[in-house]
């Protein structure tokens, strides 16, 4: 999301996590009151947000997780998403990470949000194992230049139990990453990062369930290339104004003939915060997870 709490993912889970209300389930309004109470194992959320395997003919299932305000801002005045999200958003954020094979993020967001190699969110290792995921969450960084901050390139700074991020880059970007583990650098093009090549490279490593957390340019490229299968979008009850970016940035409008509208899978609510899961592909989600 522009990364939701990226450096907080190993902190203890607060006991006062908010209750989430169901508003829409399976694309239809909920007729009777249903809630999702705080649960250390997040069993119900893990079912609601099960990360599908790729559809036939595709090698990855790419899910994005983003947050926006009522007026469409993707950050607060400080330029990061932490100013506009809350604990309800964090409950979902933790589960999405725990269920992903790999988190995909742009280098600009890595710098702005202070990403480090990822640990499994506290208390969700069993959930991750039960879903058949590897013990470690991979981080894949899209960087045309290969210019990354020290917390990524200095392996001695990496938290224990994590793996060095995969860098999806260009020929010149790879040249700037001399000294970084060669098996963690993937050249996807000469001058630009080719996302088709990048996603195929992740799939070759068995990383087929991809969670994209921004930034807006990366998300725009994923949408424009029709790589994005679903969007988990948190709407915060704030109006911030200013020059904040939107969650998707492209040079041109993306409205095209034959591009179907998104389908609302479910909608949760807590204290004015809306948490929606949108499917961008065919009419229904795959049966297999």
Automatic annotation (TrEMBL):
Keyword Translocase on entry: no
Pathway linked to the protein: Cofactor biosynthesis; riboflavin biosynthesis
A Pfam family this chain is assigned to: RibD_C
GO biological process: riboflavin biosynthetic process
Stretches assigned to the Bacterial bifunctional deaminase-reductase C-terminal domain: 61-265
Membrane in keyword set: no
Coiled coil region boundaries: none
Entry superkingdom: Bacteria
GO MF: 5-amino-6-(5-phosphoribosylamino)uracil reductase activity
UniProt keyword annotations, A-Z: NADP, Oxidoreductase
PANTHER family tied to this protein: 2,5-DIAMINO-6-RIBOSYLAMINO-4(3H)-PYRIMIDINONE 5'-PHOSPHATE REDUCTASE (PTHR38011:SF7), DIHYDROFOLATE REDUCTASE FAMILY PROTEIN (AFU_ORTHOLOGUE AFUA_8G06820) (PTHR38011)
Protein name: Pyrimidine reductase, riboflavin biosynthesis
């Amino acid at each position: 999301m522009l990364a939701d709490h990226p450096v907080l993912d190993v902190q203890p889970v607060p006991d006062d996590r908010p209750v989430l209300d169901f508003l829409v389930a399976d694309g239809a309004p909920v007729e009777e009151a249903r809630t999702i109470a705080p649960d250390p194992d997040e069993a119900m959320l893990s079912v609601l947000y099960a990360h599908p395997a790729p559809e036939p003919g595709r090698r990855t299932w790419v899910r994005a997780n983003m947050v926006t305000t009522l007026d469409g801002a993707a950050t607060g005045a400080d330029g990061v998403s932490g100013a506009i999200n809350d604990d309800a958003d964090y409950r979902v954020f933790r589960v999405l990470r725990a269920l992903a094979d790999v988190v995909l993020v742009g280098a600009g967001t890595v710098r702005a949000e202070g990403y480090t190699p990822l640990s499994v969110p506290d208390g969700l290792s069993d959930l991750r194992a039960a879903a058949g995921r590897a013990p470690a969450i991979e981080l894949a960084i899209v960087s045309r230049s290969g210019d990354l901050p020290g917390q990524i390139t200095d392996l001695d700074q990496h938290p224990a139990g994590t793996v060095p991020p995969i860098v999806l880059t260009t020929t010149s970007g790879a040249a700037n990453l001399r000294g970084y583990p060669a098996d963690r650098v993937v050249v996807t093009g000469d001058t630009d990062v080719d996302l088709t090549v990048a996603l195929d490279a992740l799939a070759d490593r068995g990383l087929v369930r991809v969670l994209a957390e921004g930034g807006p340019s990366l998300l725009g490229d994923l949408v424009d290339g029709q790589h994005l299968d679903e969007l988990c979008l948190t709407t915060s009850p704030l109006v911030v104004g200013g020059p904040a970016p939107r969650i998707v940035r492209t040079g041109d409008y993306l409205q095209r003939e034959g591009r179907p509208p998104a389908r609302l899978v479910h909608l949760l609510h807590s204290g004015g915060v809306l948490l929606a899961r949108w499917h961008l592909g065919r009419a229904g989600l795959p049966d297999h997870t």
